[in-house]
Structures are given as structure tokens and as C-alpha cells.
Amino acid sequence: MENSKGVKIESTVVTEEPLISALDIALFVVIITVAYFWYFKRDKQSSSSEKKPYTIQPSSLSSIEQTSNSSFIKKLKSTGRSLVVFYGSQTGTAEEFAGRIAKEGARYKMKGMVADPEECDMADLVEMKEIQKSLAIFCIATYGEGDPTDNAMDFYEWLQNGDADLEGLNYAVFGLGNKTYEHYNEIAIYIDQRLEELGATRVHEIGLGDDDANIEDDFVSWKEKLWESVCSHYGIEETGEESNIRQYKLVDCSEVLPERIFSGEISRLKSYENQRFPFDVKNPYLSKIAVNRELHKSGDRSCMHIEFDIDGSKMRYDTGDHVAVYPKNSSELVDKIGELLNADLDAVFSLLNTDEESSKKHPFPCPCTYRTALTYYLDITSNPRTHIMKELIEYASDPKDQEKLKLMASSTPEGKKEFHEWILRDNRNIVHILEDLPSVKPDLDHLCELLPRLQCRYYSISSSPKVYPKSIHITAVLVNYTTSTNRVNKGVATNLLAQLIPTNDELPQPTIPIYIRRSQFRLPPKSQTPIIMIGPGTGLAPFRGFIQERDYARKEGREIGEMVLYFGCRKKDEDFIYENELQEYVANGTLTKLHLAFSRDQPEKKYVTHLLEQNADELWNIIGEKSGHLYVCGDARSMAKDVHSIIVKVVMEKGQMTNSQALNYVKKMEQQKRYSADVWS
Predict the structure, then answer these.
(1) Which residues participate in FMN binding (predicted)?
(2) What confidence tens digit (pLDDT) does each residue in 393-421 have?
(3) I want to staple 419 with a disulfide (CB 3.0 to 4.6 A). Which of 254, 308, 366, 408 is the partner?
(4) Which domains does the chain have, with CATH numbers?
(5) Binding site annotation covers 414?
(6) At what angle do helices 579-588 and 541-555 cross, to 10 degrees?
(7) Identified catalytic residue from 71, 124, 147, 680
(8) 47 neighbors 79 (Cβ within 8 angstroms)
């Protein structure tokens, strides 16, 4: 058939189709079936998950468990404990002291628990009064410019901002500080006073430990008097029983698969193979060493300029920040321990906390080999503390060795004298002790439990991210010295760094774990603000970054203020580091003045402090008349103190002030961040 336009139309028979076809029915059945299985499968999984305990991964906790674990009060009540010892620690010492106090509590029928305030709901302190004869002890370190440690920051802010009623809370505080720093034990003192203000009862006066002197002696002396006060306050007596119960038990892990064994990672298993941003203290970045060159021109000392490659890491730093470097112990010392104890260093083991309620299951990443623990996790080069002497006594088979250890572990004047001379003055580490007391053969797993954690080392960054966004520079002196026993002690980090020399061929470049620690040591916000920088030796490091940043601004056409640098070293032709760079900055106008002091290039020693005294007019012109900033970097024990005294004297004389007025003026400069120090002891 064709239509009127001549187009052929095929004739078809049209039949009426049903409303629902067979295909529709089939699709409907499939949908219903899928929905049915999805619904009941989900319900089954939900039901089973309610019956199955949560699996906790090493790297994270569920929010439900974090809430549960944060209640230290519940843990105290459920386990019949009355003593909790909190620690605010940056290097591990405060945590170690806390553990020793908690352990000794058993001698006074006070079952103790160590707690990290960062992992606790500190508002629960108000409930301590519900536990009979309860006591909270705080071992708190002051860090940086009078700051709380990272793990105590939240607790510190809670005390500052809150007004909890702590009546019924019994407490004592021991502070860890260093007298060479201005803010000596500031955080511990504040916590001690603030707890009392909130109604708590001080059971024993605050103890102030000085790490510049003998913090171990300070702690032991305070701890003895603490227990006397505790006995008096609660009407209890010492049982006389020595508590030698171990905190961790040994677990044989010889059957553990190799991929589940830690090999030096700080927290997360295989974290160096599978790097994840962000990088921090528990998750460092494995950086390649891009440059490692000698800065000293001659002499028997060494100073290294090292550049860490951070390209692709997403890490960012600011001028004046610090970089943390994770070292490892020398294989020579590690092997020596294995030899002295006749131990298999490649055996795989784990140390598991005997306190099931503790949030800290292991003293370091486990399982691992003894070699890994001694290489990456444990400090085997520092002077052991007295509690280690005490624990070693039972392993001495020679009565003479036993008596020597007992004496050093005691708190008698004779014992303190022997410990000071034989351990501290002679600078013995655990390897030396095992060598010189040959009958002492501790179980290696117990020794691993006793030794403190190996800590990262911090260095002032000596570069600007404006100029070097893809690398971090440090300036480090190689540490080697001979002790009175004719042993050569070597700095753990610097001797490792000295071996990490990059190659020019296709071989893999040396690497080391690092992370960036923020600092308050900052250039003024305005580039035109004049500054004075005082940095002898490696104290020059952050100022190299400051100068680079100002030079960058100058090249961009921005106005920059005066930059005056005071630098000193022993000899111009020996250890004048970065000489060519500094002279170039003087020549192009970035560095206004460069004052140099070479202490041994003339009969009478000459230091930067002498130059400061000679240039009083220049100092006052910048910090007084022009409201400039002053920066100090280097030795805290003598140089920084001397500089502070000189500045006060200059302000007093040139500003025509009394001594009291001058001190207040300098104090105000510090509060305004116009007087900043980045110092170490």
C-alpha cells in the first residue's frame, strides 16, 4: 500500500498487548529478589556486629572506644585503684618518672595507674573524691618558651578556661625543667597553684627538677618526702615490700609473619614504605639527603651543612622552625650488647603490658627483633638513672658488683656520690656498665623494658621556604668526645648524619625520618622592621634563613629594614661557616652590618658579648629608638644569659632608666615578641 505521496507503507496486524509484559514481570522479580537479599544481609551483618567485639587498628580508635577509654575514673574504680599518675612529657622523662611513682604505690597499699592526659577526660578529676584515699600525681615538663608539652596542652587549657569544683581531690606535682631557661618549670608551678585555686588539696609540696643539674637526684629526693607526706595524710604505713613486679611480660613472636614485624617505624607498620600525609612526631617523613657537605675549612672538628629533600611530601615550613631528625644507634654498640649478654639479637619478641587497663600496650612498637629495638627504639647511649641500677642488682652474680649497684641505687649521701662520679662524671652508658660490671647479665627483654625511648633530635632550620621550598637545611656540629675512662662517646644523630653522603650515580640516595616542629622564632611581620641577630657558632643557623628571606623580599622590590648580625667562632680560617654567603649579603645591602668575633685569633679571647658592649649606641638605636627586634640563638647556659644582662645594661644606660625600669622594658620586649631566643643547654 502507498500513501498519497507515493511512499510505500507495509501492512501490519496490530494486536492489543497486556498492561504488564513477561519482561516487566521478570524485571520486577529480579528487583524484589535483590532488595530482599540486600535487606536481610544488612540486618544479619548489623546483628553480628553487635555481638562481635570491635577490632582496634594500631593507627586509629573508633569514637565509641575513645569515649570509653578516656574515663580514667572508670578504670580506677573497676580495678580497685586509688592512685593515678599523669605525665606531661616531650622526651619521655616525665612518663618514666610517672611509671616509677605508680609502681612504688604498691608499697603503701595504693595500687597505681599511669595516665596520659591527652587520652583522658580530665574533667573526671571532680569524681576522684568518690574513691577512698585517692591521690592524683602530676609529673609535668615545661617545654619551649614556657609552654606545656604537646600531650598536656588540652589539660592546661582546661585548667585555664574552666572553673571545675575540685574539692576532695588530693594531689601532688613534680615539675621537670631547666634553670638555664627563663621559664623554669612554669607549667608545673601553674598547675600546682591552679589545682589549689579550684579547691583541691595539696598533699605534698611541689618538686622542681632541674635537668641542667641532676634531675634524677631532684626527683628521688622529692619522691622520698612525697611518700612520707602520703603516709601522714592518709594515716598509712609503708609495707616495706619491694615492688619488683615487671610492667611488661615477654611474648615469643617467632611465628609472626615477617610483614607483621616492625623494622624501625615509629608508629604505623610499614609507614616508611607507604608514606601518608600529614607528617608529625608519630608519622615522620622519610627524606632523602640531597646535600651533605663540610663547612669547616680546617681543624679536627666538623660542622655539616645538610639538605633534606621534601619535594612531593606536601610538607611546609616557615623560617625559624625546627626539624626533628630520628636517629638510630650504631650497630657497633648494639652488637656489643648482644655479645655481652650472649643474646640472639634477631629473635622476634613483644613486650605486652601486664596492666590490661593501660592504654599503652607496648613500651615501643612490637613485635620486632631485639636488634630493631636496640637500634631504633631504645636509648643506649645516655646515662642510666638510679632505678635501672636497682633493677640490675638481681642479675649480678659477683657480690662486689651487687654491692656497687646497691650503693648507687640508694638515696644515701654515699650512694648519690658514687652514682654522680661513676655514672655521670665518667659518662657511662648501659654498654659501659655491662662491660665494667661483667657479672651483671640481665635478661635482654627486661633490659629493653627498663631503657628509655630513643628520642628524635631537633635542629634549627637554616633556610627560608621562599628560597628553598623543596628542601630543609640544617647546620650541625659532629659530636665526639673522650671520657675519663678513655672511651670515645659519639653523638647518636650527628654521627649517623655524617655517614649519609648522597652519591651522584643511580644508587638509592640515603634517607632519614624527619618532621617539622613549629616555632615562635619568627621574623617581624613587616619587612622594613630593623632587626639584630646574635648567633655565634651554629647559632647562626636560623639567621641564615632570616637573611635569605629578607634578601628575597629585597629582590622583589620591597623595602627591608636594617639587618645587623653578630657572629663568632674560634678562628676565621678554620670555622667561619657560610663566610662567602654572608659577605655577599653585606655586598648587596641585605645585611647592613656584620660584627665578627674570632675568639682565638688573638692573645686575648674575644666573643660576641664584647662586641655588643662596644656597640651600645647601635643596639639602643635599633631596639629603643626604632622599636626593632632582637634575636638570640645558641648556648643558653652562658652566652644567652650574658647577652640578656648586656641588653638590660644598654637599655638602662642609653634609655636613662633605673635597673628595675630596664628589666621591665626588656620583659615587655619579650612579651611583644621583640626579644626572642632559640637556645639550648
Answers:
(1) 89-94, 141-144, 176-185, 211
(2) 999 999 999 999 999 999 899 999 999 99
(3) 408
(4) 72-234 (3.40.50.360), 276-327+456-519 (2.40.30.10), 329-454 (1.20.990.10), 531-679 (3.40.50.80)
(5) no
(6) 30
(7) 680
(8) no
State the cell numbers at 648.
638590660
Residue 381 assigned as binding residue:
no
Could you please report the per-residue DSSP string of 512-575? EEEEEE--S----SSTTS-EEEE--GGGGHHHHHHHHHHHHHHHTT-----EEEEEEES-HHHH
**Active-site pick, 82, 551, 633, 635:** 633
* pLDDT, tens digit (0-9, with 9 covering 90-100), for 49-88: 332 222 222 322 223 233 345 789 999 999 999 999 999 9
Annotated binding-site residue? 14: no
All three cell numbers of 520, joined, read 615562635
Q: Is 249 annotated as a binding residue?
A: no
Respond yes or no: is residue 379 known to be catalytic. no
pLDDT at 32: 58
pLDDT band at 243; cut points 50, 70, 90: low
**Is 404 assigned a ligand-binding role in the annotation?**
no
The three-class DSSP label of residue 396 is strand
What per-residue confidence (pLDDT) applies to 292? 98
**Sheet strands (E) in 111-266:** 112-115, 135-143, 147-148, 170-177, 201-202, 207-210, 248-252
Residue-wise pLDDT for 273-282, tens only, equals 999 999 999 9
- Annotated active-site residue in 460, 462, 519, 676: 460
Q: How far apart, in Å, are the Cα atoms of 428 and each of 89, 376, 412, 420, 524?
A: 25, 20, 21, 11, 45
Residues forming a β-bridge with 481: 489
Give strand pairing partners of 76.
none
Q: Is residue 633 among the annotated active site residues?
A: yes
Which helix (H) or strand (E) element contains residue 345?
none
